Amino acid sequence: MPDPVAEALSRLSSALDRLDAAAIRHVEADRVRATLETELAVMREDRHRLAEMLDLETGARREADQTLRDVMPRLDRAIAQVKSSLSGG
Q1: Backbone phi, then psi, for 88, in 5-degree steps?
Q2: Exposure b/e, 3-21, CB count within 10 A at least 16 = b
Q3: Which of 2, 24, 52, 89 stands 20 to 30 A from 10 (CA)?
């Protein structure tokens, strides 16, 4: 006849092993979550920095485009004058 105390101890030992394994999985999941949260924070910082850089570059591009629009008529006139001078007219 099986010993009820030995069976109970065996079931308790098995339950404790499962509990220990679950605790280890939980700790590992927390570590992974913390790592992912850190990576996400770094990505957000990078995104913010890149957005600022894009804003600056967009502003510089607009200024350059405006300068080009301002200068083009003067260049066109200068080219026309040089062509006129070269053609003798």
Answers
A1: 85, 15
A2: eeeeeeeeeeeeeeeeeee
A3: 24
In the predicted model, residues of the chain with pLDDT beneath 70 are 1, 89
Rounded to two decimals, what is the model's pTM? Answer: 0.57
| Burial degree of 22 (CB within 10 A; 0-12, 13-18, 19+) | exposed
Q: pLDDT tens for residues 29-40?
A: 999 999 999 999
The one-letter code for the residue type at 68 is L
